[in-house]
Every structure is written in structure tokens, then in C-alpha cells.
Amino acid sequence: MPYRRRTVLALAVAMAAAGSAVLVSAPAAQAAVVDVDYACETKIGPKGAVSPVDITAVRSGNSYTITMSFEKGVSDSPVELPKGVMTPRAELVLGGADEGTVKVRGTPNTAAIPPDTPIKIGRLTGTYTPKKSGKVTFTAGVLIVHALGMDAATCTPKNNPEPSLELVVTAIGGPSDSGDSDDSGGTHTGSTGVGGELPRTGPLDSATALGTLGGTVLLTGAAGVLWLTRRTAR
């Protein structure tokens, strides 16, 4: 009966569309731009500045690539800094389910920085591998400006900033690991944990499950259409 076949097809499409709608509406990780008030100890005396800081995470295999972005400079130099002589690095403080720090590092300045001009920090990146499962927060920590072959400025947040990023993660299996990485990397340090799954953010995990559900509904609907079509043909 053509009418019955059209009705079943419409129901199957509607159920699949509903599954897709739930997938699209899955929540994202919580992130916020936070004003960080840095107090800097420099070779020419104390300096200070407030900079909005943004922290984001992108999953990469068993880990996350963490990016820390500065909207403003936090210190300046009395002399010009030639191209390629300034490299920033920083620590992000973990909270919630995990603990320790994540080291992030920027790239050398691509242009000369004039004297008495705020040093633009830009973006710093590092790697975070979950050691414990649950909700983990990332907060701006100590920032170091390395210039002209020395640590020219060490900047510490003095306003107790709020976390800039919150992730729900699952720890990977294997022996616990603790210990700092060197400054050339960006490794998570100072925590232990166990687990047997790949790390996933909560929203991504939910989205995968919902997408699977939507596909199952679609296949079930298609099977039902095929069964009714054959039954009608008989």
C-alpha cells in the first residue's frame, strides 16, 4: 500500500533527524576570557599590567593541545629587542580532578620590538595528558619573558584569577607519571592517576554516543520500511 510505505518512510526520517538535532546541540567545554593582573620582576625594576587571557584545548590522540592567548603585553624593554630574541613561556595551574601544571611556550618575536613598548606575548602552546578523570580547570600561572639570552621578566598573577578553561576528561591507562618537562616542551606535570580509556571531553563523548544512536535509529527505520514493503508485495 503506497500510503503506508510513505508513512513509515516519514517516521524513519523524522527519528533520524531528531537524533541529528540532539547531536548538534551537545554542549561545548566551558571557556572564558579572564583578566589577569601580572606583577613583573624585571632587570630594570618592577612592572605590571593587566591582560585578558584566553585558554583553549583541542584533542590530539591521547592528549590535548593547549593554547594560551594574550590580548595585551605585560612588560616593556628600555632597549629595542631585535627580531627573534624574545620567547615567552608560562605555566597553567590545573585544578579540580587533576593537579600540577601544564607548560606552554610561545615562538620568537617575528619583528623587532621598539624600546618602551609593551612586549606582545601572543599565543603559547603546550600539551596536556590527563592523569585523573573528571572535571579539570586551567588557570593562568607564572609567565616568563626570555629575551637577549636571559629571563628578562618573571610575571606572577596577583589577582587570584579565575580558571580560563574547564574540561571533562578521562585518564588513560598505564603507570602514573610525575615530573617536570624541560622548557622546550609543554608537558603536564605533578599528578598521578589510573584509567583504561582514551581521554575524551564530556561533550565530545556525549556527541559520539548520540551520533551512534541517530545512526541506529536510521538503520532500524530503514529495516522496518524494507520489511513492510516486502510484506505488502506478498
Task: Give a verbal description of the structure.
With 234 residues, this protein is of the alpha+beta class. It is built from two helices and eleven strands, in the order H-E-E-E-E-E-E-E-E-E-E-E-H. The protein has helices spanning 2-24, 202-233, and strands spanning 30-31, 34-42, 45-60, 63-70, 86-96, 101-105, 123-128, 134-147, 150-157, 165-169, 188-189. Strands 1, 2, 3, 4, 5, 6, 7, 8, 9, 10 and 11 form an eleven-stranded antiparallel sheet that branches. A hairpin with a 2-residue loop joins strand 8 (134-147) and strand 9. The radius of gyration is 25 Å and the shape is elongated. Residues 7-28 and 174-234 have low confidence and may be disordered.
**Taking Cα atoms only, what radius of gyration do you get, to the nearest Å?**
25 Å
Number of strand elements: 11
Mean pLDDT, nearest integer? Answer: 72
Low-confidence segments, ≥5 residues, pLDDT <50?
A: 7-28, 174-234
* Helical residues, percent: 10-25%
The number of helical elements comes to 2
What is the percentage of strand-forming residues?
35-45%
Report how far apart the termini are: 11 Å
Describe the main β-sheet briefly.
Answer: 11 strands, antiparallel
Order of helices and strands: HEEEEEEEEEEEH
Class derived from helix and strand content: alpha+beta
Oligomer: single chain
Apparent shape: elongated
What's this model, at a glance?
The chain is α+β, with helices and mostly antiparallel strands and 234 residues long.
Task: Label this structure with key terms.
234 residues; alpha+beta; 2 helices; 37% strand; eleven-stranded antiparallel sheet; disordered C terminus
